[in-house]
Every structure is written in structure tokens, then in C-alpha cells.
Specification:
3 domains; six-stranded mixed sheet; Rossmann fold; 16 helices; 15 strands; six-stranded parallel sheet; alpha/beta; 17% strand; 427 residues
Length: 427
């Protein structure tokens, strides 16, 4: 892990070390273009071919239906079932509070304006796979989609070696009322949802994290197919602010929890003394030895860094430039820092609030902006699955009140037909 002193860095240097690797390997882009084009042209056959090539599975069909989902879900261990039930309830409770009716506003007498939410009718949820399929991501995306009232929810996840999915994802599907899981991953799944195939329905917006191929595919179909996506995404990251009230072993566990996602993940420590940094790094070395993913985690730690600051205010200044996906305030003084936070995806307050709680079960969503995009993007929420439509109604009195204003402005812009649409009514 590299070390920096905030006071020895210029503003340009601070911004430079806060940059993430945003540019994509051109070879990945070209391969993704090829995959997307093949799915667009060959549909289901391309998906079957890619399942064989990438997942090493010869699928008989591209999805499992309700009966199979129920059968697989029945094998879930009781402890895991209870854990999913708890996570489901907490996530649902939190997201349900985000639904509300906006009031009608009379902007002037007789002129009434308001907004109403409408669910995006067709959405696609990408649930990452690989060595394990992630039920937590399924809940994070599926719950707000269901609460929003999306009419069609298309779920894609890479198949296991048996050509099915695991019991955790199957049970999550039952909780969500999802009756079909499409067995595909990578760029090909994104392409299938964007363009549609003989079997996979086309959707209007695609959600979900993934590797660089998935991320590149989402960006590609956004521009080429006009399919909306949830947000730009990149490798996962955490920034931990620690002072003398932090507990070094806890801080180290948070850094390692993020680092184990992959070698390109970032785990940043911003601390108010060299002593804290030294204690945390000692704990990192102790804890990393017990991790099954030690090799990958060590690479991520090696590519990360620590920053020494004078105080918590300076720490917050650095954090707002970095704009972390996950921000942990490992201090008993976190209350005073909350108003200072301007850029962060999700914030974890105090020594007893690890980022992994938000990843799984506290209730907040773990699909968050990375790579500095927290400066402009929010994490996934109920709002991500709806559109806001504006309405207005003008009474006879309102038309008299607003008419002259519109006529003058339309004339100033040289748009006589616009002016006439008011004038003809006033007459």
C-alpha cells in the first residue's frame, strides 16, 4: 500500500491520485462489440454458443421456469432462508418509504402543475455470476423493481455447471415473484436484454453490476440501442476515515472486505496520525493470512493507498474529491462530519457499521456509483425504476392570467404559432 501526506500534495496531485482507471482496454471493447453484434444478429443461437464457450455449459434451453425455480429453492438451508428473509424485509422496508405522491402546485391563480410517477414497463436485471451467483444483488435490484410496479422484469444470470442456478438465487426469485431466470451472463446477456431475441424479451433499462465486459456492453447498448442503464460502473471501492477513536482491527477488516472483490478494487485509508495507519496495516497483514482469496486481496491492497491528514475536516476534503462508492467514518465524532459530505455513494457511520452490512441486509441499496461518479450519480433506488411525468391544467381564469406572458415570450422568440395557440383561446 502506498502512503501520502495530504500536506505534501498540491491540489493537482490530490486530484491525480483520486483518478481511477476509467479507460477501457481496446481489446475488450472490440470483443464486446463482436459479442453484441452476434447476439443482435443470431439471437438465441448466439446465446447458446456463448454459454458453451464461456460458461462451459451446453444448455437445452435458455431459462428455467417457475416449477424448476421452486424445486431448486426447496433445497435452500434453513439458516440461509432465514437470512434472505431478513435481508428482504429490511431492503423492502427501506425502499418502500421512497414511494410518495407529490402535491399539486398552483403556480398562479388558475394554473395548476404537478408530477406523477410511472413505472418503467420493461426492465432487465443482471445478476453477476462466476464462482458464485449473488442473491444479494438480486434482492437489491428486484425489490425496488417490484415496488415500482414494473410490468416485465427480465432476470439474467450466468448458469452453473449443471445448467441451472443455485438455491439462494432461486429462493430470492420466489420472494420477488419472478417466474423465469434466463441463464446467460457477460456482454451477451446485456445484448440480449437490449435487443431482444426469440426467447429473451427486450427491455427499456438495464440494471446491475458486472465485470469490464458487462460494463462495456452496458455503455455500448446505451449509445447503439438507446437502452437506458442504471449508472456507469467500475471496480468496487471503499474509503475509510479513521481517527484516534477508530478500532484498527475493524478498519483493517473493512479495507480487506472491499479488496477481496478483485485485484482492481480500491481500499483507501485516510487517517489523522501515522500511528493509526501503522496499527491498521499491522492488522491488515494479520487478517489477510486467513482469507481464502488472499492472493487477489493482496493485489488490491498493493494497488491502494493511505493518506495522512491533520484532522477530520481535512480528511473530508480529500474524501469529497475522491467521491467514494462506500465511505466509512470510523470515528466516534461522525455526527459532525455528516454535513460536510458532498460526494459519496453510501455512508457508514461509526465503529459498529461495516460496509458489508449495507452490502447485504441493513436496507440501503448496494448498487452504487464508482470511479468518482458519486459526484453526479446516486445509487439505485425506487426512483431508478420510475419516470416522472409532469401535468398541468389551466382554467379560464388561469388562461387570462398566464396568456399575456406566453404571447410576449413566444413573439420574442419569433414563434408565432406558439403565440397563436394562446391568442386563439383568449379570443
Amino acid at each position: 500500500m502506498k502512503f501520502y501526506s495530504y500536506n505534501n500534495l498540491s491540489q493537482d496531485q490530490i486530484e491525480q491520485i483520486c483518478l481511477r482507471q476509467l479507460e477501457d482496454d481496446n481489446s475488450i471493447l472490440e470483443r464486446v462489440k463482436e459479442i453484441v453484434a452476434k447476439v443482435k444478429t443470431d439471437g438465441d443461437q448466439a446465446l447458446l454458443d456463448y454459454a458453451k464457450a464461456f460458461d462451459k455449459v451446453e444448455l437445452q434451453q435458455l431459462f428455467i421456469g417457475k416449477a424448476e425455480i421452486e424445486g431448486i429453492a426447496a433445497t435452500i438451508p434453513a439458516e440461509a432462508k432465514a437470512a434472505i428473509d431478513t435481508a428482504y424485509q429490511n431492503i423492502r422496508t427501506f425502499h418502500a418509504t421512497q414511494a410518495h405522491m407529490e402535491p399539486k402546485v398552483e403556480t398562479m391563480e388558475g394554473v395548476v402543475c404537478w408530477r406523477e410517477s410511472r413505472a418503467i414497463e420493461k426492465v432487465g436485471l443482471y445478476i453477476p455470476g462466476g464462482s458464485a451467483v449473488l442473491p444479494s444483488t438480486f434482492l437489491m435490484l428486484g425489490i425496488p423493481a417490484v415496488l415500482a410496479g414494473c410490468k416485465e422484469i427480465v432476470v439474467c444470470s450466468p448458469p452453473q455447471q449443471d445448467g441451472k442456478t443455485n438455491c439462494y438465487v432461486a429462493y430470492s426469485a420466489l420472494k420477488l415473484g419472478i417466474e423465469r431466470i434466463f441463464l446467460m451472463g457477460g456482454a451477451q446477456a446485456v445484448a440480449a436484454m437490449a435487443y431482444g431475441t426469440e426467447t429473451v424479451p427486450q427491455v427499456y433499462k438495464i440494471f446491475g453490476p458486472g465485470n469490464r465486459y458487462v460494463t462495456q456492453a452496458k455503455q455500448l447498448v446505451q449509445s447503439a440501442a438507446g437502452t437506458a442503464i442504471d449508472m456507469p460502473a467500475g471496480p468496487s471501492e471503499v474509503l475509510v476515515i479513521a481517527d484516534d477513536t477508530a478500532i484498527p482491527s475493524y478498519v483493517a477488516s473493512d479495507l480487506l472486505a472491499q479488496a477481496e472483490h478483485g485485484a482492481d478494487s480500491q481500499a483507501i485509508l485516510v487517517a489523522t496520525s501515522n500511528e493509526i495507519i501503522a496499527k491498521v496495516m499491522k492488522e491488515v497483514q494479520l487478517q489477510i493470512e486467513a482469507l481464502p482469496r488472499k492472493a487477489v486481496t493482496a493485489l488490491a491492497i498493493e494497488n491502494s493507498y493511505a493518506v495522512l491528514v491533520d484532522d477530520l475536516q481535512q480528511a473530508m476534503a480529500f474524501s469529497n474529491v475522491y467521491a467514494p462508492e462506500h465511505l466509512i467514518l470510523a470515528t466516534e465524532r461522525f455526527e459532525s462530519l455528516i454535513p460536510l459530505i458532498t460526494n459519496a455513494g453510501s455512508v457508514f457511520l461509526g465503529n459498529l457499521t461495516p460496509e458489508s452490512a449495507g452490502d447485504y441486509a441493513s436496507g440501503t441499496n448496494h448498487t452504487l456509483p464508482t470511479s468518482g461518479f458519486a459526484k453526479a450519480y446516486s445509487g439505485v433506488s425506487l426512483d431508478s425504476f420510475v419516470k416522472k411525468i409532469t401535468f398541468q391544467h389551466i382554467s379560464p381564469k388561469g388562461l387570462k392570467n398566464i396568456g399575456g406572458t406566453v404571447e410576449v415570450l413566444a413573439a420574442a422568440e419569433g414563434l408565432d404559432a406558439h403565440k397563436n395557440a394562446i391568442s386563439i383561446r383568449l379570443k
